């Protein structure tokens, strides 16, 4: 199996050959973020740490899209959406709403949650199971919906 860093390096070469400037810049930024994190933690990144970096990159672009939309900068919105699609390619397959709801239900049963006061307990047990596979906001909403 190819490591994430090897895949990114290969994609970087492909983007150079294709002269795809957006892909090239985005992949460079991802590689840079991964290398910076590796320097910070002083060891090779494991899959969870790589996932954390990728999620951070994804979140930055989602926030940028929201800001650019508010500011009426449609040119930047389109470019950032392309970057977001590139970042998303490196993330694991996302859970569907039904899969997330099912996972929330089993987690609620596993921790013995009775009501809204157990929200934190459910989220604490749920988050490691969905890391990188679902958005935290979507998970929180699903938990709230099932606890009410």
Radius of gyration: 18 Å
CATH superfamily of the largest domain: Uncharacterised protein YqeY/AIM41, N-terminal domain
The overall pLDDT average reads 88
Under CATH at level 1, the class of the largest domain stands as Mainly Alpha
User: What percentage of the residues does DSSP assign to strands (E)?
Assistant: under 5%
Task: Examine the secondary-structure arrangement and name the CATH architecture of the largest domain.
Answer: Orthogonal Bundle
| Strand tally | 0
Biggest sheet: strands, sense, closure?
none
Total domain modules? 2
CATH topology descriptor of the largest domain: Hypothetical Protein Yqey, Chain: A, domain1
Instruction: State the shape.
Output: globular
- Distance between the terminal alpha carbons, to the nearest Å? 43 Å
Structural class category: mainly alpha
N to C succession of SSEs = HHHHHHH
Helix content class? over 70%
Unreliable stretches covering 5 or more consecutive residues: none
Number of helices: 7
What can you see in these coordinates?
This protein is mainly α. It contains seven helices and no strands. Helix 1 packs antiparallel against helix 2 (21-41), helix 2 crosses helix 3 (47-70) and helix 3 packs antiparallel against helix 4. It is globular. It starts with a helix and ends with a helix. The mean pLDDT is 88.
Brief account:
The protein is an all-alpha fold. The protein has helices at 4-18, 21-41, 47-70, 74-89, 97-111, 119-130, 136-147. The chain folds into 2 domains: 4-89, Uncharacterised protein YqeY/AIM41, N-terminal domain (Hypothetical Protein Yqey, Chain: A, domain1, Orthogonal Bundle); 97-147, Orthogonal Bundle (Arc Repressor Mutant, subunit A).
């Amino acid at each position: 199996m190819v490591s994430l860093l090897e895949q990114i390096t290969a994609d970087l070469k492909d983007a150079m050959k294709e002269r795809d400037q957006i892909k090239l810049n985005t992949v460079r930024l991802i590689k840079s973020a991964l290398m910076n994190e590796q320097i910070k933690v002083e060891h090779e990144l494991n899959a969870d740490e790589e996932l954390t970096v990728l999620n951070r990159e994804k979140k930055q672009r989602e926030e940028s899209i929201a800001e650019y939309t508010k500011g009426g900068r449609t040119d930047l919105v389109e470019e950032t959406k392309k970057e977001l699609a590139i970042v998303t390619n490196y993330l694991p397959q996302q859970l569907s709403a039904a899969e997330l709801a099912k996972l929330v239900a089993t987690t609620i049963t596993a921790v013995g949650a009775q009501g809204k006061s157990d929200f934190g307990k459910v989220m604490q047990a749920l988050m490691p199971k969905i890391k990188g596979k679902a958005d935290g906001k979507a998970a929180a909403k699903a938990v709230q919906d099932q606890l009410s």
